Amino acid sequence: AQSVTQLGSHVSVSEGALVLLRCNYSSSVPPYLFWYVQYPNQGLQLLLKYTTGATLVKGINGFEAEFKKSETSFHLTKPSAHMSDAAEYFCAVSVRFSGGYNKLIFGAGTRLAVHP
Amino acid sequence: GAGVSQTPSNKVTEKGKYVELRCDPISGHTALYWYRQSLGQGPEFLIYFQGTGAADDSGLPNDRFFAVRPEGSVSTLKIQRTERGDSAVYLCASSLVTSNTQYFGPGTRLTVL
């Protein structure tokens, strides 16, 4: 069965510092992987996704993630944190079914705090 | 264009009452999903619609939960005899059936007193 583990429920960084949010997955088939961001009282916004091809994926707002099959990881990074990056971040793996649809299996989330 | 919309944004009800939560997907998206996000957790799959039919309802926790999508667009999630444990944010997402990317609405925060 597919699952997602996000290490660290809370991460705090200084403005301008590197952001690293960790995600490990378990999947019996080649995975589709996603990072979503959730701002307070809002829905989930897609940051980036990996399906096939290049393992380094670039997303919105300067974020990127690297798919490492050997480590079953899909960590999210940003070189320099902004105050506006403070939010909750969810890693997800997509399970594709024979009917052609996808279920998303989410991690528990990591709350990112950015301080001046 | 317009994104996924959900109404109401907040719903407070008493234990035992019936509630309906509405989702209006992105126009042209035939795939529609409902997820439930409990406090401190990631969203969990409830049900998937392809067009008007519920193709996968394996995530519905029990028979108090039911969802419909009669015209293949707007969907309503219905909860009977609500319990305090039903308190959560209910998220709706839609996608093109050929796509692996789901677009989420802002959610409905349900509080059962």
**Strand-residue proportion of chain A:** over 45%
Briefly note the structural class of the backbone of chain B: mainly beta
**Low-confidence spans of chain B:** none
- N-end to C-end Cα span of chain B: 37 Å
Please describe what this structure looks like.
The complex is a heterodimer of chains A (116) and B (113). Chain A is mainly beta and 116 residues long. In chain A, 0% of the residues lie in helices and 58% in strands. In chain A, strand 9 (87-96) and strand 10 (102-106) form a beta hairpin. Chain B has no helices and 11 strands. Chain B has strands at 5-7, 10-13, 19-24, 31-37, 44-50, 53-56, 65-68, 75-79, 88-95, 103-104, 108-112. In chain B, strands 2, 4, 5, 6, 9, 10 and 11 form a 7-stranded mixed beta sheet that branches. A 4-stranded antiparallel beta sheet of chain B has the order 1-3-8-7, with no helix packed on it. In chain B, strand 7 and strand 8 (75-79) form a beta hairpin. The model of chain B has no long low-confidence stretch (mean pLDDT 94). The interface between A and B is medium-sized, with 29 and 28 residues.
List the helices and strands and how they pair.
The complex is a heterodimer of chains A (116) and B (113).
Chain A: E1 3-7, E2 10-14, E3 19-26, E4 32-38, E5 44-50, E6 56-58, E7 64-68, E8 73-78, E9 87-96, E10 102-106, E11 110-115
Parallel strand pairs in A: 2-11
Antiparallel strand pairs in A: 1-3, 3-8, 4-5, 4-9, 6-7, 7-8, 9-10, 9-11
Chain B: E1 5-7, E2 10-13, E3 19-24, E4 31-37, E5 44-50, E6 53-56, E7 65-68, E8 75-79, E9 88-95, E10 103-104, E11 108-112
Parallel strand pairs in B: 2-11
Antiparallel strand pairs in B: 1-3, 3-8, 4-5, 4-9, 5-6, 7-8, 9-10, 9-11
Please tag this protein with its features.
heterodimer; A: 116 residues; mainly beta; 6-stranded mixed beta sheet; 5-stranded antiparallel beta sheet; 0% helix; globular; B: 113 residues; 7-stranded mixed beta sheet; 4-stranded antiparallel beta sheet; 11 strands; 49% strand
